[in-house]
Design brief:
Layout: E1 3-7, E2 16-19, E3 31-36, E4 39-49, E5 60-61, E6 64-66, H1 74-86, H2 91-97, H3 101-104, E7 114-119, H4 121-124, H5 136-147, E8 150-151, H6 152-156, H7 162-172, E9 175-179, H8 209-220, E10 225-231, H9 237-250, E11 254-258, H10 266-275, E12 281-284, H11 290-301, E13 307-310, E14 322-328, H12 345-356, E15 359-364, H13 369-376, E16 381-385, E17 397-402, E18 408-409, E19 412-413, H14 414-425, E20 429-433, E21 442-445, E22 462-464, E23 469-471, E24 478-480, E25 493-496, H15 500-510, E26 516-519, H16 527-538, E27 544-547, E28 560-565, H17 579-591, E29 602-607, H18 613-619, H19 623-637, E30 644-652, H20 655-672, E31 677-689, E32 692-701, H21 704-720, E33 726-732
Parallel strand pairs: 2-5, 10-15, 10-16, 11-13, 11-14, 12-13, 14-15, 17-29, 20-27, 20-28, 26-27, 28-29
Antiparallel strand pairs: 1-2, 1-4, 3-4, 3-6, 7-8, 7-9, 18-19, 21-25, 22-23, 23-24, 30-32, 30-33, 31-32
Helix pairs in contact: 8-9, 20-21
Bound molecules: adenosine-5'-diphosphate and zinc ion (ZN) (2 copies).
Length: 737
């Protein structure tokens, strides 16, 4: 009997074998329903085999082959196999987590894309003479489909119950669905190079020399090539993407454009739609309903969506005609998934491009040091945009204010307040950037020094004055603000430091008539809120914006001429070796908001360290200089990109259990005697969260291959360790420490 090996959402690093009944056609990539223990589960056929090692009495048959979606391509399955192996995550969970929720379930899919139905091979083999006479409607449907494929409306003309009967026929595997205008297997015409396609292209701008050079370099590439498009903010990277897309679309290919989570706004979608008015563009992100996501995914799969615009999860979208991948803001940390399959969508995209033999473009004003290093060493090709696209638009002037030598008002310097006042008078906008929401990061007792610590975490509770609460941003625990110190009874409790709410109230006091808008996760909790706020900003109904990093990225606010950065210093001396890199990127982003149109912009940074090299580089708009100093430091210290890392994390209620596990893991690692460096077991940056003790163990290798080799040997040992009452995970190429 033929055997299929099925990927299931089970935390074991194997596929599961099942038999297939005689006469049932099943292909690799098809979804199937199988019994598992007492349950039944939906899985994906990864392999067909002639034999199994399982005892014949234990092996069970596939319960049902699902024909309501096209099989996954061998190419996608290969990509998922690679991810499972590289990120050390069970194959079944890898495959299932890459699929839209609807495809993971066993509920029949009646999709909006799939409009045509036809007989399957087994359906065509049926002898209608022998078909049960009492199933009248089913017989009629089968007879009709034997003549030609039909859509649902045509079938419903046969009988009012045709919909339900069709489902029954599909469940038997006799009828299958076909996407309209394409067949289940992508037709050759949608594959790249399969023929020219005409589309309307709004060619708004003549490219600058640098832009044209970049476009030419990418379009001239044969097969796989990875480009780093390093262009300052406002240099017109988006315009380069648009022209590259145009080039691919003309040849009938599909384009995948990955953007950070926070950037995927309706505006961005509309922008690309406006440039390609008659091209089918779909988006894929976690904000879609399950139905929408499936619908969009299937359009990509059918080759009907020519442009797929998505966040990290869209790197797994099935795209038969994929001819170009673009990763915008490639340095952004939201490309890395922080739980489950801990993949980097950027890195997976690079693998995908090389697997498929197409070009990939990584774009950023502040590339990650990993990518920058790869471009310098020649592994990627560097493309530079050094000037702003609009001749009048200048880079903003950057100035530091020493907070120890000036008058401060609750965290805002007098000079900055004066500058804001001038902007209000000129009807220009100001933005104050502070990476902390709430009113103040901690509440303190002036009598005994008590601090508002979270009782469940090693962190502090943040003061939120709007609803008079202390809130832990790590575990969500909250309390009413106490009237007196819980420790000594003193009534004099003081907020220490500033968050967005406090900045807002200081500004309101100083500028009572100003229209102030606070943009952070608290004020934009409602889905529509952020959208409305953006409209207000564009309509110039706002004088001062106070916001967190939500405001830093990718938005174009033409009236904005002043950016104030309130407290960047903590990142300068952080234990996270990437903190400075992140801060630099963030400040370039936020500075890039100022002076985008015809008005020059200014950036004022409040710091205790005005001479710090980071601020100097920022003032000189010198990413290159900054990056080369950082890279030299990383090389000396033996940090990425000069080593490759993997982090083993564990957490549990018992400290002894957590450390015992990690110490055993470490001993097992040492015993392997492989070419990696095994560091010590240490507490996590937040050593206790929601009453769980957290610790970690870092392993690093000089070569990716060495580390991968080690991880393959180590993983089974980890799986075999006793790990009661604790959770552990392996994070390959970790970004968070
Ligand atoms: P980036 O993505 O690099 O920050 P954008 O692509 O948003 O930059 O471009 C900045 C501005 O310059 C936009 O308003 C864009 O329309 C304009 N622009 C881009 N390229 C050109 C060009 N070649 N000629 C004129 N304007 C351009
Ligand atoms: Zn006290
Ligand atoms: Zn907490």
């Amino acid at each position: 009997m033929p055997i299929v090996r099925v990927a299931l959402d089970i935390p074991l690093p194997t596929l599961f074998d099942y038999t297939v009944a005689e006469g049932v056609a099943v292909a690799v990539g098809q979804r199937v329903i199988v019994p598992f223990g007492r349950r039944q589960m939906t899985g994906v056929v990864m392999e067909c085999a002639a034999a199994t090692e399982m005892a014949p009495e234990r092996i069970k048959p596939v319960k049902q082959v699902l024909h309501d979606s096209a099989p996954l391509s061998a190419e996608l399955l290969d990509l998922l196999r690679f991810c499972s192996d590289y990120y050390r995550y069970p194959i079944g969970q890898t495959v299932l987590s890459a699929l839209p929720t609807r495809l993971r379930s066993d509920k029949p899919i009646i999709s909006r894309v799939i409009l045509s139905y036809r007989l399957s091979a087994s359906g065509a083999a049926l002898d209608l003479e022998l078909f049960p006479k009492r199933k009248v409607v089913q017989r009629r449907i089968l007879a009709k489909l034997a003549e030609q494929p039909c859509n649902l409306a045509q079938l419903k003309s046969l009988s009012a119950t045709a919909g339900a009967q069709l489902k029954a026929l599909m469940a038997e595997g006799w009828v299958e669905s076909v996407a309209l205008a394409t067949s289940l297997t992508p037709s050759p015409s949608t594959a790249c190079g399969g023929g020219a396609q005409k589309h309307t292209f709004d060619n708004a701008h003549t490219l600058t020399g640098e832009q044209q050079f970049a476009v030419d370099a990418v379009t001239a590439a044969q097969g796989y090539a990875c480009f780093l498009l390093h262009g300052i903010t406002g240099s017109g990277k988006t315009e380069v993407y648009v022209h590259l897309m145009h080039h691919v679309l003309q040849r009938g290919g599909q384009v995948l454009l990955l953007v950070p989570e926070i950037n995927l706004t309706p505006q961005l979608e509309n922008y690309f739609r406006s440039r390609f008015p008659d091209v089918n563009l779909i988006s894929l992100h976690s904000g879609l309903s399950d139905g929408e996501r499936l619908h969009n995914w299937q359009q990509a799969q059918a080759g009907d969506a020519q442009i797929v615009l998505g966040t990290r999860l869209s790197v797994f979208a099935e795209m038969p005609g994929l001819a170009l991948i673009i990763v915008d803001e490639e340095h952004d940390n939201s490309f890395k998934q922080q739980d489950g399959l801990r993949y980097s969508a950027r890195d997976v995209a690079i693998f995908r491009a090389s697997q498929r033999g197409v070009a990939i473009v990584l774009g950023s004003a502040t590339p990650s040091l990993e990518s920058y290093h790869n471009a310098q060493s020649g592994r990627y090709r560097m493309l530079k945009l050094t000037g702003r696209a609009l001749a009048e638009a200048r880079l903003p002037a950057v100035r530091c204010i020493n907070i120890n030598q000036t008058v401060m008002h609750h965290g805002i310097s007098e000079n900055l307040l004066r500058e804001i006042g001038q902007r209000i008078a000129r009807r220009e906008q100001s933005l104050l950037f502070i990476n902390r929401r709430g009113y103040a990061p901690v509440l303190m007792c002036t009598g005994c020094g008590w601090l508002s610590s979270c009782r469940h975490c090693a962190g502090k509770m943040v003061l939120h004055l709007n609803d008079k609460r202390l809130r832990c941003h790590h575990c969500g625990y909250q309390l009413h603000v106490p009237h007196a110190c819980p420790s000594c009874g003193n009534a004099d409790l003081h907020p220490v430091g500033s968050g967005t709410q406090r900045v807002e109230s200081v500004l309101q006091e100083r500028f009572p008539d100003a229209r102030i808008l606070r943009v952070d996760r608290d004020s934009t909790r409602n889905k529509r809120a952020w959208q409305t706020m953006r409209e207000q900003i564009h309509a110039n109904e706002v004088d001062i914006l106070v916001g967190t990093q939500m405001l830093a990225k990718g938005h174009d606010f033409p009236a904005l001429t002043l950016v104030g950065v309130l407290n960047p210093d903590s990142a300068l001396y952080s234990s996270d070796f990437r903190a400075a890199e992140k801060l630099f990127a963030q400040l370039v982003q936020v500075a890039g908001r100022a002076g985008r149109a015809d008005k020059p912009g200014e950036v004022i940074i409040q710091t205790a360290f005005p001479d710090h090299p980071l601020f100097r580089a920022l003032q000189a708009h010198d990413f290159e200089g900054w990056a080369s100093v950082q890279l030299a430091e990383r090389q000396l210290a033996g940090f990425p990109p000069f080593v490759y890392q993997a982090m083993l994390r564990a957490e549990g209620k018992q400290e002894t259990g957590v450390y015992a596990f990690l110490n055993q893991a470490r001993a097992a690692a040492v015993e392997l005697r492989l070419a990696v460096e095994i560091l010590g077991v240490v507490p996590a940056a937040l050593p206790r969260r929601a009453n769980h003790i957290r610790a970690q163990l870092l392993v690093q290798g000089a070569k990716r291959k060495d580390l991968q080799h080690f991880l393959r040997a180590w993983q089974p040992l980890l799986d075999a360790l006793p790990a009661q009452k604790l959770r552990w995970s392996l994070d390959v190429d970790p970004l968070e420490f």
